[in-house]
User: Fold this.
Amino acid sequence: MEEQLDQAAALVQQVLGDELVGLYLFGSAVLGGLKPTSDLDLLAVSRRPTTTEERRRLAERLLALSKRPRHLELTVVVQSDVRPWRYPPRMDFQYGDWLRDELERGEIPPPVPSPDLAALITMTLRYGKPLAGPPPGEVFAPVPPDDLVRAGVDEIDGILADLDGDTRNMLLTLARIWSTAETGELRPKDAAADWAIAQLPEAHRPVLERARDGYRSGDYGTWDDLDVRACADALVAEIRRSRRRRGASAPR
Assistant:
């Protein structure tokens, strides 16, 4: 894993060169320990937008590096797009293995607004490990707590659309959004599931327990015997309830 991480870091430094402000390891590797199917999550900050050719070089090399042994996820942001902070933040480039088919066809995703960056940047500020550049606090502006919750709510439709194809991870993502909305903490996925299971009605707990246990063991699970959609709907209802409470308690 260390060799793979070193190779990925060297690639980013080679492609971005002097335009690289900083490169940070975040996610499970620094938050709560890697599980069997955990990605290595990297966040790179550039002084300027990447070119189409630079994004292509990153994608081609990451296709070869990823899954050897870990899945790699690389997100690139332009510093001026995230500092000063504004919502929604803009993502310059992202590599993840869920994009592998498109990337292998040469389809390189363009820069887009990305609510999910609120959580990525918050996690990096709190726990990120610099692989290049200064500490994260010198590079990123803090994300307001309300924007962190808002980002989770804005991700719900996409999560529900992927529920059938990636059931385990989508359920755990909903649990983490709820946990963060209620407590302000960014827990590892299985710890967020532990928190949510204790709050959920008993009827929905077996679904989230299976997702949590599968994450810990590396098993993606089978779901035909459980009402996954009802559990997801319950989690979404709690997330929206948390958002409404937060809005009602905000100073006027």
About this structure: The two ends are 50 Å apart (CA to CA). The mean pLDDT is 94. Residues 147-249 form one domain.
